[in-house]
Amino acid sequence: MGIVWEIDFYSRPILDDNGKKRWELLVCESPLTTTRSTDSLFRFSRYCPSSTVNSAWLAESLTDAMKEAAEPPTKIRFFRRQMNNLITKAAKDLGIDANISRRTAALYQWLEERLETVYPQDPNYDAAAAQSPSVRYQPQAPKSLPDALEGQKWAFVTLTAKDFADFDEWEMDFSEGFPLELLDLDPETRVPGVIVFSPRAFPLAAWMSGLELGFLKFVTAPNPQLVLETGADDSWRLANITDDRTLSEAKGFESVKEQARGVHFLAIQSDPNAESFAGFWLLPELNLT
Question: Is the pLDDT of residue 185 over 70?
């Protein structure tokens, strides 16, 4: 996948001399694996006057960030939909793909940290303007998976946080994780997941790897089903929940996920006896709604 940057370019609860909010660019390297130390992630920050908030300023600042980084990014993720045009324009000018994503755990935690420990220390801090790093997503009706890629079977399963310690050594064709220390999970915390079994496991995993995966969610309306949220607001129906036993398991999945602070996983295998994964993604359901 190369290097992925998570960025946020938005106003902060700090006022300038004209009483307007100061803007700030934050760049955080996405860890992509469960074993990457968060201390080793590249970070870059720069304040921007409200009078120069534009794609040219952003492109210039991202260029400066790339000069400081060990490697330039091949992809940029950002979670604020209202900044889509500005960020994608700046990234395009630099020849970098940029996508709205709900998979920005490292950036989200850094923003929360700065809201608690950095911005309040500024003499021009405006407490009334402080807010958590959130943005509202509009739920969409789930779409069906391509017919050729629908799984034949699936199952709810559970691992523990400590089981991901050797994540990098697992045999996986497509995968992505993140350090569970980002969300302060105890090693014994149960982490729920769903395994999809399909004879076309590799094509299914390849197709999913091209999506900006968000999270799995059990919904009850218009009927009980398990959906996969992707991109800005896309939703895919993985399975219909049609019997009482599976309904109970689906409710249990959501309960365990909540206890795990939103952490869960999606795996794809050719059959229940397979020793490798065609795809495995550790997913964070962040508070971005």
Answer: yes
